[in-house]
Each structure stands twice: as structure tokens, then as C-alpha cells.
């Protein structure tokens, strides 16, 4: 695996430092594990707490592309992650430790979910939207994440979100779309054109954001008030929740051209204009057999997601 030496030296940590920080990767310091990447908590000599994502697929070659992709992205954008370690077959990424872990640990836990009232959730959604807008439009490199989901949103001490896991990211320059024969990501969050045909664009991320937005509240049949999770009733503004649901439905429309971009999403939240009506998101039922068929032929490689996504019907 060859990468410009300047990139490695800019981000490099030695293995001894990481071993010391994690107490030799003590199991009690393990924060979690997914795919090829177990994550450990550590503390550097200056007292800074870190999260170390350790790569285990070196011998088989699995995940090397994702590792390289993430390091190059951080180096080019001078991202605020801490760096990486490459010694022999050991390959690791270092991040700032986020004390509140991931957004999914709150959303899908019956106790933790009660700790996120509506203003907190609304602020998290707005911050994620601004982060995507920056990556799509304002960054000097156009970035398509391709695996946005609740478990890839980290929360700091103040519950400020940070989008993480850029191993599947595509740097597109002036392009706004592309295609691939290898499908990566998480079913339920994938845009249909990407899951079925390998076509990705900034609108693929918009779709994933729409799913995430709808996950931030309870969805069921009924009047708008009945869409609100019981734990949010006392803290929410019904009009804001309904607006978010409508924006979410606009984001998960079947055709990319029907979805807003992230600039429009941000504007919708701050505008009093009447929103357009979303079209029926019928792909969730009509195309599921196509997706499963592609998967059975080994075309897709997707990360694990235990969340069940209900069929969403535009109202």
C-alpha cells in the first residue's frame, strides 16, 4: 500500500505511544467493534483522551482501500482527527475521543433516548445538515460520504455531532456524481439508485440524511402529532417536528432530481415558506427484491445495521 510519505509523516504516531495510551489494548478499554475496526479508548501522555480504530484486516488485504482513503482524506483536508499509525502490519487511525459515543446509542435505547429532548435532537440535525452542506458545496474537495447513518455520527461532551467514518467516502472534485461496480454502505440508508445500479452523488447522502432525520422521531400512521415519540411531547414544537418529517420525506424520494440538496434543506428549516409535497417513496417496497438479488450475486458489500426501517408513505 503506497501513499505519499508527506501524508504519513504529517499524521504519524508510533506504535509504542498507542500501546502505552491504550494500556496495550486492554479489553476494558474497548469501545466497540465493527467490520475490520475495533475501537479502543486511550490517553496520551499530555492527558488528551483518544479513540484508536485498530485495523485487523491487513493480512487478508480486506479494508486496506478504506484505510488509505480515510487517511488521504484527512491529510488533504487537514481534518481535526489526530493521525494514524503504520508499523509492519499494524495500521490504526486516531481520533479525538467523543464521550457520548454515537448517535445510535441514544436513539435506539429505551433509556438513553429519553435523554435527548427535542431541542437537542433539532440542534443535532441542523449541525449534521450543515456538515453535509460543507462537504458537498463549500469544501475545496467535493466529498460524498456514502455511509451516513446514526452509528457514524459521534457526539461530544455537549452533544455536538461530528460525522465520522470516511472509509467509503468519494472525493469527486468538480463532479457531482459517479458510479461503481462495488456497492458499500448500509441497507436502509442507501439511496435506491446506489443500492441497485451503483450510481452515487451528493443526492445519495441527502437520501441517507432523510432516513436519519426520520429516525430521530417515531413514525407511525396517524395525524402529525402521533408521529412524535412520547418522550419528546413535552419538549417539542409540533410545527418544527412536522417540518422535519416533511423535509425527511423530501430527502428520501425515489428519484435523485426530486430530492433537495443540503443547501436547500438548511434553508427550509429557517424559512417560513410552504414546503413542496413529497412524492410516494415506493422504492422501499417495489425494489427490495432487486436489491436482495444483487446482494445474492455478491455485488454489494454492506456494513451491518440492526435498525429496522419501516415503509414510509408520503401523506
Automatic annotation (TrEMBL):
All copies of domain Protein kinase, residue ranges: 25-275
Single biological process term from Gene Ontology: defense response to oomycetes
Keyword set, alphabetical order: ATP-binding, Cell membrane, Glycoprotein, Kinase, Membrane, Nucleotide-binding, Receptor, Serine/threonine-protein kinase, Signal, Transferase, Transmembrane, Transmembrane helix
GO cellular component: plasma membrane
One Gene Ontology MF term: protein serine/threonine kinase activity
Pfam families the record matches: PK_Tyr_Ser-Thr
Topological type in the membrane: Single-pass type I membrane protein
Compartments reported by the entry: Cell membrane
Family: In the C-terminal section; belongs to the protein kinase superfamily. Ser/Thr protein kinase family.
PANTHER family reported for this sequence: CYSTEINE-RICH RLK (RECEPTOR-LIKE KINASE) PROTEIN (PTHR27002:SF853), RECEPTOR-LIKE SERINE/THREONINE-PROTEIN KINASE SD1-8 (PTHR27002)
The protein's name in its UniProt record: Protein kinase domain-containing protein
Species this protein is from: Glycine max (Soybean)
